[in-house]
Design brief:
With 416 residues, the protein is an alpha+beta fold. The chain has helices at residues 2-14, 16-54, 99-106, 141-144, 150-153, 173-178, 209-212, 220-227, 246-257, 264-267, 269-307, 309-317, 322-356, 377-403, 407-412, and strands at 58-64, 70-74, 81-85, 92-93, 112-127, 130-139, 154-157, 168-172, 186-191, 194-204, 215-219, 235-240, 259-263, 359-363, 367-370.
Length: 416
Amino acid sequence: MKLNLFIAWRLLWAKKRAMGMSLAGIVCGVAFFVLTQAQTSGFEDFFIRTIWQTRGPLRVQDKYQASVTEMVARSSDGKGSFAIPLREGRQYVPGVHEPERVIEAVWNFDAVTGVSGVLSGNVTATSGFRSETAEVMGVKMSDHVTVSGVADQIRYGDITTFDEDPQSAVIGSILAERLNLDIGSELLLKNAGQSRRYEVVAIFETGVRDYDKSWVYIQQREARQLLNKMDGLTYLQVNLRDNDKAPQIAEQMKHALWHDVDSWQESERVWLEVFRALRVSSGITMSIIILIAGLGMFNTLAIIVMERQRDIAILRSMGYRRSDVAQIFLLQGALVCAVGTVLGWIFAAVLTYGVENLPIRIRGIFATDHFVVKWDPMHYVLAGVVTVIIVLGASYIPARKAARIEPGDIIRGTSA
């Protein structure tokens, strides 16, 4: 094995320029593969955290109306029966009625770590001579901070006294800018003849434009007066121990609560599919770089086989088996693969660190002031696996051709 490795190294060194180009391609391919996966995964994770901190992992909302929801059918052998759910026949009553009873039932689930009732409705927000359409969010802030990231999203002001001051309001950053509001400013909210004045005590920024330009938090009892909704809630926002299990818990809650329960995976399915498609497409694109480098190495190894036919014949005459010759050429590919992968990993770490510290301002579906990356060992493992498959695959054909060379054919000059 050591002798085969030495011969493989000498053959590689004889074509060091060509192999150097292939090695550079592998290093760049591995590095950019890891970098693109780190970026797309990083932005996806950041988007998911933003969703958790704004709309929450679960929402308990519209109640099922007491109507036919399933049909009992008998099995084919006549020995049993089973229920067939009839989702199409369901009718919904908007909102959460008897919220105290529903909240108590939600807390019976071990996976739940927080519940907040929200009463929302559209109003007109006015300051001075400016008016904007807004959405009031009536909450008990001590509950809402357990199911959202509102405490970390505050940019100016303080929400510690929100529950004690009925005239306090917390508004989104874009809405505050449009209405020219600051901490301590007066805000007038109007709805269907009702109008009430509040003092801005804090300004938040979620990074989600639709929320930052419309949401206004006020106390729940104030929202009832303003919206003229004396009972019920619009929805319950629920936090979980493991947010990834939200779809399974949502299904359990639907049957237990007789309310529609919406998981974050269901509500944000489109964006999750977009991020998944970006990861796959970037992985394919970067794999092409590695593939091109592998083709270059295939060409170099093929030339070595052609140029070294007499040397291979001598090795065979000395007792080398076909497997030994094939091993020599496979070892050349393995050497380039190993060195290229390790150097690619190092280059990827350097690039990822540099990109992570690049300033960039993004506002839209989330807010960030720098590139977001995810440091995941699986990205490096996946890049290594792709490289091994491509490079060793490119080495196999020349190795097989070299193993088929017969000493007698070379002596007679009749080799293929």
